[in-house]
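Anyone else keep sequences and C-alpha cells together like this?

Example one:
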Amino acid sequence: MKIHILAFIFFFFIHAGEALSEELPLYLTYMGAGQPASMVLPDGQLQIDLSYSLMNDAVDILGLKQREEQKLAISGGKIGDYTGLNLGLHYGLTHNLTCSGGYKYLTLGYQDTDLNIKTLDISTRWTPNGYLALDLGLKAHQADDLIMADLAYMNYYVHKFKSNLDIEVDNQYVWYVLTYPDMIIRYGIPRKADPQISVEDMQDYTWYLRLTLGYPEKIFYPNIFLEAGYTRIDTRLDTNLTDMIPQSYKSYLPDFPIDLGRTERYLSAGFSFFLQTPFDTITHLEYEYKRIYRDKGLDYIPDNHIARGEIAYLLTQNVILHLGATLLYRQFNGEIPFLYNKYTQTTFDHPYGWMEFGVRYLF
C-alpha cells in the first residue's frame, strides 16, 4: 500500500503536462455540489444546479427510518422526515479557479414539529494542473426558534435536570410530580399558561479547507481528499417553567436561559470516484470519515461515516440529470452542528439517509 501511495505522489510531481478541465470530455467538466474532485470548470463556464431531496415513510433508504423508529423511544434529538430544495451556482473564473455558491432550504421532522433550516455554502477551488486542488469555503446553517410544548419532549429535558421530576397538565393545574421509591409527591399550581421549552438562536458557521488529489482519465477518475474545519455554534435553551414552578422546586432547575454556544473542530478524509458507465451515464461514489473534536462532556459521539452515491445521465451536452442518495452512520453529527448539544448528544447513535434528484445545466 505504501509503495502504491509513493508511486502516485511521484507521478503527480513529475507529470509535465497540464490536465485542464477544458481538455477533458464533458463528464469530467461539471461539478457536483460538495463532491470532492481535483478538477475545476473550464474558464468562463457557468453551471446551475437545482435538486430536491427527501426521506419519508414512502422513500426510506434501506428501510432505515422504519427500522430505527422501532428501536427508538421519544427523545429530544429524534429526527423524522426530511425534505430539501437545493440551488447551486458554479463559475469557472479562470482555467485554474472555480467559484461556487449553494443555498438549501431543509425541513426536518424534529421533536414532534417541523424544523426549517437554511443552509449557505460559499467556496472557491484552485488547481495548478488538475491533479491537485485546494478548496476554501464557508458553510452556515440557521433555523428559527423551536418551541416544544409536547409533554413527552418537555419531560425528556426535565429529566436531564432532575431525573425523578415529571411535569403533568390537566384542565386546571400544572403538576410537578416527584417520584421516590416509597412515595410520590404531587404539587399543583393553577394553569395560567402551558409549560414550554424552546431552543433559540440556532445557527453555526464552519470555515473549511480541503486538499484533493485526483487522477483524471477518460473512463475512471479517482480522488482522495483530506479536509479540516473550524465551527462556531450559537444556540441557547430557555423555558417558561421558571415563571410557574413552585419556590421549593426552583433548585431542581438550572438558571435559564442556558447558553449552548461553543466551538469545535473536525478532520475528515475519504475518496470520491467518478466512473463512465453505459447509456451516457456517470456513476459517482464517495465515502468520508469525519472526526469531530469537542470539549469534554460533549464527546459522546465524536465521529461519523458518510457515504454518497449518484448516477448522472447526460441528456444533452448542456443538460445533466442526476439521481443519488446519502447515508449517515451517526445521523447529522458534524453535518448540522447546532443540532448536537449536551442534552441531545445521546440521540445521535443511529443512521439516517435520504434520496436526491435534480438537473444541472451548463452554459
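And example two:
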Amino acid sequence: MRIWAVCKDPGGTAGMLPVVDELGRRGHSVILIADNNSKAAEILAKKKRPFRYYYANDGICGEGDPDVFITSMCSRGGGIGRELVPVMKGKKIPTVVIQDFWGGGGNDGWQQSQSHPDYITTNDEVGREVLTGAWPEFDPNRIIITGFPAFDKYAKMDFDAVRKQAQTKLGLNGNLPVISFAGGGDLTDLVHRLLCGTLERICWLDEGDYYFIPRPHPRTLSDFPAEAELWQKTLAGLHRGPRVIYDFFGQCDMTEIVAASDVVCSISSTVLLDAAVMRRGAISIMPPAVKNRFRDQMGGVIDQYPLVPLGCCLEVSSVGDLGTTLAKFVKPKERVQNPLRQNQEKHVKTDGRNAARVADLVESINRRV
C-alpha cells in the first residue's frame, strides 16, 4: 500500500513518526511529507529522516496518488495536510487525521466540514467528546480512540535514569527540587510572569534552594518572537527565588526536562500529559483570559485541561492559588510524594501500541470509502 504522511509542527511530527515507522515495518511504502519551511522539515532534516516537500502549485513531482492519505492535525493554519484532505476525498482516496492534542481545530479551519477526514484518531473518551461537540455532523463511529502515538516511547522508558541524565547535562544538584514551565503562543508570557511573580514571593523555600527551568515552545522564536523577548525580560527581572536554568533550545529535550522536574507547570501543553505519564506533579495555570481562549480552542466543549477532572493535574488561576498549589509538590531540602500519583497511575497509561492501533486503522481502510 502506498501512503502519504503529512506533518507540519513539532507535536504533529512527534505523533506521525511512530506511525510511519510502524507502517514501514509492516511493508507499506510511506512517503513522509513536510510543509515547505515548516518546523517539521527542520526536525526531519535534523533526524536525517527522508522526506519530501509539498509545494502548493507543484505537489510532489513524479509521484502518483497514494492509496491512503494520513496527516497530523497541526495548528497555525492547518497547513498542507488540512488543505489536501478535500483534494484526496475528491479522488476517493481515504483520509485519516492523527491528533497529537485534544481539540476540534476550530481556530485552524479543521472545523469546516470540507476539511473533515474520513477518520480521525484521538487519545481517549475526552478527545471523542470534544470532537463530537465541535464537529456535530461528523459520524462519531469514525472517531477512533488509539492513544497519542508520540507517547509510545514511554512504555519502556526508565524515568529515573532519564532524570539522572538530565541532572548531569544541566549540572543539577539531585537533592534540590525542580519546578519547570513550558508553553508557547500568545498569552503565554502572562502565565510565565504570574509564575515568576509567585516564585519571587515564596517564603517556604530559601532563595537558591530550588531550580526553575523555563522552556518555550520550539516555534516561539519563529512564530512568536515578541513572546520570547518578554520571557527574557521577565527572567531578567527575577531578583530572588530559584536558581534559573537557561536551556531554551539546548542540551536537554522536553522529555528530559519533565523527567528532571518535581512539578511541571504550563497552560495546556502536552507536557502536562508527559508529566502525568512520568508521575510528576502537573499544574495547569489558567487565569481568566487564558481560560476563555482555551475554551474557544476546544470549541466551547470543555474549559479545563482534560487531565484536571481526572485528578491527574491541578488547575490554578491566581498567584495566591499557585503558591499554595506548588507547596503540594515542593518542600525545602526533601522530596515530596506526588499527591497526584494514584490518579495518574489509574487514568494515564501507555502500552506502547498507540501507533500500532493507528496502523491497524490505516490497513483496514478500503480505497473506496
